[in-house]
Amino acid sequence: MPATWILVGASRGIGLEFTRQLLARGDQVIAAVRNEKTANELWKLAASQTRPASCLIEQCDVTKEASIDEFADRIGAWVKQGLRIDNIVLNAGVLKYPNRATEVSFADFALHLHTNTIGPIVCARKLLDLVPDRPPAKVIFISSDSGSTAAFREHEDGFGAYAASKAALNQMLRHMAAELKRKKGGSSSSSSSSSSWADVCVLALHPGEVQTDMANIDLDWEVEGIISPEESVRGLLQVIASKSKADSGTFWSIRAQVKLLNSKAAAAVDKLADYEDEVRYLRLQVQQQQKSSLTADEEAQRQLREQAEASLHASQSELEELTSQLFGEANEMVAHERQERAKLELRVKMLEERDRRKVESLDRLEARVKRVERVRALVGQ
Ligand SMILES: NC(=O)c1ccc[n+]([C@@H]2O[C@H](COP(=O)([O-])OP(=O)(O)OC[C@H]3O[C@@H](n4cnc5c(N)ncnc54)[C@H](OP(=O)(O)O)[C@@H]3O)[C@@H](O)[C@H]2O)c1
Known about the structure:
Layout: E1 4-8, H1 13-24, E2 28-33, H2 40-47, E3 55-59, H3 65-80, E4 87-90, H4 106-129, E5 138-142, H5 160-182, E6 201-206, E7 209-210, E8 226-227, H6 229-242, E9 250-253, H7 254-380
Parallel strand pairs: 1-2, 1-4, 2-3, 4-5, 5-6, 6-9, 7-8
The chain binds NADP nicotinamide-adenine-dinucleotide phosphate.
The site of NADP nicotinamide-adenine-dinucleotide phosphate has 29 residues, from helix 1, helix 4 and strand 7.
């Protein structure tokens, strides 16, 4: 479902590009400008939209309380008719260069504070008042790293009032985030809106060093890493999408995020290269291991084959020896048997001969007995 954004300071530079990218992705934008008559590019952009009421242009000068009130009243009327505010972006800003602390006029310091600090904070506050039952998901302040107290930019000569106004903005929005966390109520049935004030995510974003009218000044130092409004807003939208209520009250720099992403990408590329090296090395090791295990296998097979051949050879010669020994023994046995048999046959023959002779002598004796008996019989008669 398309989200509805209120964008304050949409006539030029980052604000105009913000509007363009939000519309391009199908969201609805209520684009507020200081002077409707001079916001030509925004009018052209709105006219080129095919979706009805996707880009509504409103007037709001953040340095004038009455202008902020009237703007809030008009938005309030739409809210009463059912307009849902999903996100608010306070982009309006001014840099009147130079604005050194040692030189700055009361008016110039006030201009920076009114435009960059008081106006955006009060405008946000009044818009939040319009939706007590349906708080927006995100309130985004386009700040600057010039306002960072943690990373003071000493070399930024001529940026005193500007830096002070952004530092004050950062500090004030942190309080806003903390107060909303403590604020009771704000429950809603809408799924895309925050359900309570504690769910609202308030962020300060540094858009990078962006090639806009504001950056079109002669500086004594070199500004590194200048990016286009298109690149800046693409990064801003990514950062906004990545943050949640847990990040409320924090400051994020696109440059730092891009640097972080770049260093992450570089680290990932390095890691990938390391992995590829490791994979190559492991592959080589595996190949070598396969090779050496192959030759080890071959060597083991050769030894086994030799052992088998040797034991076969030994068995064969043992068998041959055994065979000849058996044959010798068998021959001996056969020869011995033959001799024994011959001896036996001879003895049998001798016994038969003796037997025969005994039978003959017995026959002769019987014949003699018979003759004697005949003689006796003759004598006895
Ligand atoms: N460009 C950078 O490198 C850079 C770096 C850090 C932070 N930032 C911040 O980014 C934001 C946008 O800057 P930019 O580079 O796009 O600057 P820019 O091109 O000068 O645009 C400034 C925008 O703010 C609007 N604005 C100024 N005073 C206003 C007021 N009283 N009420 C309502 N709108 C007012 C301007 O409207 P008009 O057309 O009516 O003047 C314009 O739309 C600013 O807050 C700036 O501080 C920019």
